[in-house]
Amino acid sequence: MKWNKVLSKALCAALVMTAAGAMAVAPDATKIESIQANVVPNFYGYKVGTVDVTYKEGTDLSQVTVGDFTVYDRGFQNPEFGKVEVTSAKVNGNVVTLGVDQGTDKTADRSRETYGTLCTSSAWYVDSENVVHYGAEATVDALGNKIAPNTIKKGLQWRKNMDLVLCVNSEDIAGGIRSTDGSGNMLADTVWKDANLTGDLDKVTLEMVDVGWEAANYTMLGEEGKVPVQVIWPEGYDANRAEKYPVVVYQCGGGVCYWEVTDGSTTNANNLGCNVVYDVMMTEWHRQFPGAIVMSVNVHSSDVVNSAKEIAGVLDYAAANWNIDKDKVIVTGNSQGTLIASDFIRQRPDLVAAFVECNGNFGAIAPAARVDGTLANSSLAGWTEEEVKAVIDNNVSFWMFNGETDGDNPAAQQDVIEIVKNLYREAGKTEEWIDLHVRASGLQSWKFKKWGETDHSVTKVVAWDYLGRAYDDPAQGGIVLNAGDRYTYAGMEEPEKYKDMKIMDYRYTVYPESVAEWAQKVIAD
Description:
The chain has 525 residues and is α/β, with parallel strands linked by helices. Helix content is 22%, strand content 25%. Helix 3 packs parallel to helix 10 and helix 4 crosses helix 5. The chain starts with a helix and ends with a helix.
């Protein structure tokens, strides 16, 4: 749509009647010089926090109200446009700053739709031909953009640009000021500026790492055959410093955070960087452990063994080129990423000091009906005796987190954490050492319900709440637990399903440290 048509619609809509009956003119869209979204850390990843609307000098903004502006964007779950919830409008000189609500966007106890985020869900993506893919049938969105079916069933992208639209004195999205072509490409004549990234997101860099063998079939990266790695460097990083740097490795969920089309399609897509913006795990680790190199390997295969091999290759490369301390590597895994991280530990326990497991398993998936406290029936059942022994010999530390109603994960977690404790006892470790180095926490279901999430969103809860503070609120309703207190799952959500699984009987401990404090303790111990 031409700029002058957009402005004429906005200008016509700007004439409103005051209570006294006189004509008053709301801010004139023809006088807008620039619009900039500022993106901030949010429970849902990274979300628009404010929008700065800059008018020409001398513009009368005395009658501005929050109701004069409507902001649209594609949804996280669904690419159809919806309103970004604007809650305030503040004037400073010739700039109107719109504040965006940062609370829960839930639509029901276990569902939510949020607008103005940098990440898509797994349901939709934009391909290399700038076509949006979603659902089973072709449709058209509110701006007339084609929505093609998502036949490859993939998504989770870092949106290079949000498709923001600003409407002034109108809610008609068709007459709004667009930032992009609807596929994340900024329009050449738009007054929108590139989004301003805050919360240390601007510190993330992309490094291409040669792991020593060909990593083929990376979509949209040419024939380089290198593994992409997102990295946040410590301030003042010195490649020649005598004291080597500790490392935090985050493996995101879904098994992959960069993928290639395998069905013969010519419209390739990638989700490079969703590991950075799906949650705040990387940037929060950086804030809580600023002296560490924080990285996430964009593995190119959903195969657990191959993905784990790539992580090991990246760390070997980093040891040779990035001045890392191979004895101080902390691995954090999310969902499928816990299985990849586990296999990385199986392959190279010498490279892992601590494993923070979120919504998954240590080892493989283990049915609740099978686990019985024995190694043979645990999530480590597929490991050899030598592989299990190597983990214990290398003194790998664990802190496992799982949600109350997340399938079989809580049962497998409770089972394997006690097995690991017993293995360390057999190896001669003291109870004091075990209490510090081997931990499990059960996250109550209400924490997820509060945000409209399923109990499989442990990574979001841990990153948002517990990297920086101790997990001391297992109970809802104002009951405060102190360090050393014990608690069990509440069992309120699905009591029939869980009554025979014994997970409600397991007693967890409230620990005094945040996850980041704990990690720094165990690598220094």
